[in-house]
Amino acid sequence: MEGLYFYWLAWMGWVWTTFFMNKNNPLRLKWSVLLLAVILAAPYTADVVNIEIHLSALAIGLFIFLETRQKKTGSLLYLFLSSFIIMLAYTSFLLFELFDPVWVLFDRNIMLGAAGFYLAVLLHKERRDRILALISGFLQGDILFSAILWKFNFPYPAASMAFMDILFISLGLLLAWAAIESMISVMSGSTINQVEGEEQKTS
Protein backbone atom coordinates (compact mmCIF):
# COMPACT_ATOMS: atom_id res chain seq x y z
CA MET A 1 0.00 0.00 0.00
CA GLU A 2 1.52 3.30 -1.13
CA GLY A 3 1.75 5.90 1.63
CA LEU A 4 1.99 3.38 4.47
CA TYR A 5 5.55 4.33 5.51
CA PHE A 6 4.76 8.02 5.01
CA TYR A 7 1.64 8.13 7.18
CA TRP A 8 3.19 5.92 9.85
CA LEU A 9 6.39 7.94 10.19
CA ALA A 10 4.76 11.36 9.68
CA TRP A 11 2.11 10.76 12.37
CA MET A 12 4.77 9.44 14.76
CA GLY A 13 6.81 12.59 14.11
CA TRP A 14 3.82 14.87 14.61
CA VAL A 15 2.83 13.22 17.89
CA TRP A 16 6.41 13.50 19.14
CA THR A 17 6.86 17.18 18.17
CA THR A 18 3.41 18.16 19.49
CA PHE A 19 3.22 16.27 22.77
CA PHE A 20 6.74 15.19 23.78
CA MET A 21 9.13 17.85 22.45
CA ASN A 22 10.29 20.55 24.89
CA LYS A 23 7.77 23.41 24.74
CA ASN A 24 10.60 25.97 24.80
CA ASN A 25 12.25 24.43 21.74
CA PRO A 26 11.87 26.93 18.82
CA LEU A 27 11.68 24.03 16.32
CA ARG A 28 8.61 22.50 17.97
CA LEU A 29 5.92 24.69 16.37
CA LYS A 30 7.67 24.74 12.98
CA TRP A 31 7.97 20.96 12.69
CA SER A 32 4.45 20.35 14.02
CA VAL A 33 2.89 22.73 11.48
CA LEU A 34 4.98 21.35 8.62
CA LEU A 35 4.18 17.70 9.35
CA LEU A 36 0.48 18.41 9.75
CA ALA A 37 0.38 20.47 6.53
CA VAL A 38 2.15 17.71 4.57
CA ILE A 39 -0.15 15.01 5.96
CA LEU A 40 -3.31 17.00 5.14
CA ALA A 41 -2.16 18.13 1.67
CA ALA A 42 -0.67 14.81 0.48
CA PRO A 43 -3.87 13.26 -1.04
CA TYR A 44 -4.75 16.30 -3.17
CA THR A 45 -3.26 17.19 -6.56
CA ALA A 46 -3.06 20.17 -8.90
CA ASP A 47 -1.78 20.66 -12.45
CA VAL A 48 1.26 22.93 -12.63
CA VAL A 49 2.63 23.54 -16.16
CA ASN A 50 0.98 20.32 -17.43
CA ILE A 51 2.51 18.25 -14.62
CA GLU A 52 0.31 16.75 -11.92
CA ILE A 53 1.77 17.56 -8.50
CA HIS A 54 0.53 16.54 -5.07
CA LEU A 55 -0.01 19.58 -2.85
CA SER A 56 2.37 18.22 -0.22
CA ALA A 57 5.15 19.36 -2.61
CA LEU A 58 4.02 22.98 -2.16
CA ALA A 59 4.18 22.67 1.64
CA ILE A 60 7.65 21.12 1.39
CA GLY A 61 8.78 23.81 -1.09
CA LEU A 62 7.57 26.58 1.24
CA PHE A 63 9.45 24.96 4.13
CA ILE A 64 12.69 24.80 2.09
CA PHE A 65 12.30 28.47 1.10
CA LEU A 66 11.77 29.61 4.71
CA GLU A 67 14.71 27.53 5.95
CA THR A 68 17.18 28.70 3.30
CA ARG A 69 16.28 32.38 2.90
CA GLN A 70 18.69 33.54 5.63
CA LYS A 71 21.62 31.36 4.60
CA LYS A 72 24.86 32.97 3.48
CA THR A 73 25.74 32.81 -0.22
CA GLY A 74 28.51 30.19 0.13
CA SER A 75 26.40 27.93 2.33
CA LEU A 76 23.41 28.33 0.02
CA LEU A 77 25.51 27.51 -3.04
CA TYR A 78 26.89 24.34 -1.46
CA LEU A 79 23.38 23.32 -0.40
CA PHE A 80 22.22 23.84 -3.98
CA LEU A 81 25.06 21.72 -5.35
CA SER A 82 24.50 18.90 -2.84
CA SER A 83 20.75 18.85 -3.49
CA PHE A 84 21.53 18.85 -7.24
CA ILE A 85 23.70 15.74 -6.77
CA ILE A 86 20.93 14.02 -4.80
CA MET A 87 18.42 15.05 -7.49
CA LEU A 88 20.55 13.44 -10.23
CA ALA A 89 21.00 10.27 -8.16
CA TYR A 90 17.24 10.03 -7.50
CA THR A 91 16.22 10.61 -11.14
CA SER A 92 18.93 8.25 -12.44
CA PHE A 93 17.71 5.49 -10.12
CA LEU A 94 14.13 5.87 -11.40
CA LEU A 95 15.22 5.92 -15.04
CA PHE A 96 17.43 2.82 -14.64
CA GLU A 97 14.57 1.12 -12.82
CA LEU A 98 12.22 2.02 -15.67
CA PHE A 99 14.44 0.67 -18.45
CA ASP A 100 16.09 -2.23 -16.63
CA PRO A 101 14.26 -3.17 -13.41
CA VAL A 102 16.19 -6.45 -12.96
CA TRP A 103 18.87 -4.91 -10.75
CA VAL A 104 16.34 -3.66 -8.19
CA LEU A 105 16.98 -6.56 -5.84
CA PHE A 106 14.65 -5.67 -2.97
CA ASP A 107 12.11 -3.02 -1.91
CA ARG A 108 12.80 0.04 -4.10
CA ASN A 109 11.55 2.40 -1.38
CA ILE A 110 14.21 1.15 1.03
CA MET A 111 16.92 1.15 -1.67
CA LEU A 112 16.19 4.75 -2.69
CA GLY A 113 15.73 5.88 0.91
CA ALA A 114 19.07 4.35 1.92
CA ALA A 115 20.83 5.93 -1.09
CA GLY A 116 19.46 9.38 -0.22
CA PHE A 117 20.44 8.96 3.42
CA TYR A 118 23.99 7.93 2.47
CA LEU A 119 24.45 10.89 0.11
CA ALA A 120 23.10 13.39 2.65
CA VAL A 121 25.48 12.09 5.36
CA LEU A 122 28.36 12.09 2.89
CA LEU A 123 27.75 15.65 1.67
CA HIS A 124 26.90 17.48 4.91
CA LYS A 125 28.06 17.46 8.52
CA GLU A 126 25.23 19.51 10.01
CA ARG A 127 21.98 17.68 10.73
CA ARG A 128 19.82 20.57 9.47
CA ASP A 129 21.70 20.83 6.17
CA ARG A 130 21.45 17.07 5.63
CA ILE A 131 17.67 17.25 5.98
CA LEU A 132 17.36 20.27 3.68
CA ALA A 133 19.60 18.77 0.98
CA LEU A 134 17.76 15.45 1.12
CA ILE A 135 14.26 16.95 0.93
CA SER A 136 15.04 19.46 -1.83
CA GLY A 137 17.10 16.94 -3.84
CA PHE A 138 14.42 14.26 -3.73
CA LEU A 139 11.62 16.70 -4.54
CA GLN A 140 13.47 18.19 -7.51
CA GLY A 141 14.36 14.69 -8.70
CA ASP A 142 10.74 13.56 -8.62
CA ILE A 143 9.58 16.66 -10.50
CA LEU A 144 12.35 16.16 -13.09
CA PHE A 145 11.37 12.50 -13.55
CA SER A 146 7.73 13.54 -13.98
CA ALA A 147 8.75 16.14 -16.60
CA ILE A 148 10.82 13.54 -18.52
CA LEU A 149 7.91 11.07 -18.61
CA TRP A 150 5.48 13.85 -19.58
CA LYS A 151 7.51 14.40 -22.78
CA PHE A 152 6.78 10.76 -23.70
CA ASN A 153 3.10 11.06 -22.75
CA PHE A 154 3.46 8.91 -19.62
CA PRO A 155 1.52 10.45 -16.72
CA TYR A 156 3.52 10.44 -13.48
CA PRO A 157 2.28 12.64 -10.60
CA ALA A 158 5.13 14.29 -8.70
CA ALA A 159 5.36 14.00 -4.90
CA SER A 160 2.96 11.04 -4.92
CA MET A 161 2.44 8.70 -1.99
CA ALA A 162 5.22 6.44 -3.31
CA PHE A 163 7.58 9.43 -3.27
CA MET A 164 6.52 10.38 0.25
CA ASP A 165 7.25 6.81 1.38
CA ILE A 166 10.82 7.08 0.06
CA LEU A 167 11.33 10.57 1.50
CA PHE A 168 10.16 9.66 5.00
CA ILE A 169 12.16 6.40 5.07
CA SER A 170 15.26 8.44 4.26
CA LEU A 171 14.38 11.10 6.86
CA GLY A 172 13.78 8.36 9.44
CA LEU A 173 17.25 6.94 8.70
CA LEU A 174 18.76 10.42 9.07
CA LEU A 175 17.11 10.96 12.47
CA ALA A 176 18.18 7.51 13.67
CA TRP A 177 21.75 8.26 12.56
CA ALA A 178 21.64 11.63 14.38
CA ALA A 179 20.53 9.84 17.57
CA ILE A 180 23.43 7.37 17.23
CA GLU A 181 25.89 10.25 16.70
CA SER A 182 24.56 12.05 19.80
CA MET A 183 24.80 8.86 21.86
CA ILE A 184 28.42 8.25 20.76
CA SER A 185 29.28 11.88 21.53
CA VAL A 186 27.82 11.64 25.06
CA MET A 187 29.55 8.31 25.73
CA SER A 188 32.95 9.51 24.46
CA GLY A 189 32.60 12.72 26.52
CA SER A 190 31.86 10.79 29.72
CA THR A 191 34.79 8.44 29.02
CA ILE A 192 37.20 11.37 28.60
CA ASN A 193 35.94 12.97 31.84
CA GLN A 194 36.39 9.65 33.65
CA VAL A 195 39.98 9.27 32.37
CA GLU A 196 40.82 12.86 33.31
CA GLY A 197 39.39 12.31 36.81
CA GLU A 198 41.52 9.18 37.31
CA GLU A 199 44.66 11.02 36.11
CA GLN A 200 44.02 13.84 38.58
CA LYS A 201 43.66 11.32 41.43
CA THR A 202 46.93 9.57 40.59
CA SER A 203 48.82 12.87 40.26
UniProtKB/TrEMBL annotation:
Name assigned to this protein: Uncharacterized protein
Pfam families per record: YphA (PF24124)
UniProt KW keywords: Membrane, Transmembrane, Transmembrane helix
Residue stretches spanning the membrane: 6-22, 29-45, 51-68, 75-96, 102-124, 131-152, 158-180
Domain of life: Bacteria
Organism: Mesobacillus jeotgali
Entry annotated with the keyword Heme: no
